[in-house]
Amino acid sequence: MTTVLSLGGSIIAPSAVSSGVDVPFVQQFAALIEDFLVKDKERRFIIVTGGGFPARIWQNAYRKVAGGASNAPDADRIGIAATRLNAELIRAVFARWATAPVITDPSAADLSKGRVLVGCGWKPGFSSDYDAVLLAARSGAGAVINLSNIAQVYTADPKEDPAAKPIEKISWPGFRAIVGNKWIPGKNVPFDPVASGFAEEKGLKVICASGRNLDNVRKILESRPFFGTTIG
Fold first, then answer.
1. Residue 12 near residue 49, CB atoms below 8 Å
2. End-to-end distance of the chain based on CA atoms, in angstroms?
3. How many other CB atoms are found less than 10 A from the CB of residue 51?
4. Cys-Cys link to 136, which of 4, 165, 188, 197 (CB 3.0-4.6 A)?
5. Is 17's pLDDT higher than 70?
6. pLDDT score recorded for residue 224
7. What ranges in 119-223 are assigned the alpha helix state H?
8. Torsions phi, psi for 18 (to 5 deg)
9. How wide is the angle at C-alpha 179 spanned by C-alphas 207 and 177, nearest 5°?
10. Taking a C-beta distance cutoff of 8 angstroms, is the pair 29, 214 a contact?
11. CA nearest to 57, candidates 95, 115, 102, 10
């Protein structure tokens, strides 16, 4: 059984942590995944990392320096570099299980090596969520578990709309009506709009949940009732 996780950079490297990386979270996350690997010899994981706070810092710096000359592809490349830094960290943490290099091209990667594969951003035009969807489609996983700092998808941004309501289940057309179809580098949405269109096309399900609530993540991995949003 292969499980694909889109691990948000916002929980690997949040702005609130002075060291840059939330070391306790990474330790606890690794322990959770290793528990499944030890107990179930058939279990495999593909973990795709986001860029998090480092991506936004460097992208914002680029925009300030470049001013009106900034462009989306260059901002994306900066963000991709941050996802790769996070991916190398996660791969090293799982060195016992992750025997292959970090996946930088999900369209051509050999998915047969190791019980943990770690991927990162690929190329401009979408976020690492898209890479997770592509790897889920290629591996036959059927779903992507999207772990971020958002516990549920809302009908609107609750920071801007007090009337926004949480959603437990939603169709792809309904979700895409909320997030739109256009990708903007550094855009803060529950799931990448371009990846959403691709997931709908491939008939995949996406589960959005808080990555920090590891007890809840365990429930998801054990196919038990959980707190979050199911899309598709």
1. yes
2. 20
3. 32
4. 4
5. no
6. 96
7. 128-139, 172-179, 193-202, 214-221
8. -65, -30
9. 100
10. yes
11. 10
Cβ neighbourhood burial of 74 (10 Å; 0-12, 13-18, 19+): middle
Domain ranges across the chain: 2-231
Top CATH class, 2-231: alpha beta
Furthest-apart CA atoms within the chain: distance in Å? 54
Would you say the C-alpha torsion 157, 160, 166, 170 has a positive or negative sign? negative
Cite the beta strand spans of the chain per DSSP E: 2-7, 44-49, 116-119, 143-148, 153-154, 166-167, 169-170, 205-210, 229-231
Asked if pLDDT for residue 18 goes beyond 60, the answer is no
Per-residue pLDDT reduced to its tens digit, 204-226: 999 999 999 999 999 999 999 99
Torsion sign across C-alpha atoms 175, 179, 183, 189: negative
Q: Find tokens 């920071």 and name the residue.
A: 159
Q: Based on C-alpha coordinates, what's the Rg of the chain?
A: 17
Query: CA distances (Å), 202 to each of 49, 136, 181, 232, in order?
Result: 21, 10, 16, 11
CB atoms within 10 A of CB 87: 28
pTM: 0.92
The SS3 of residue 23 is helix
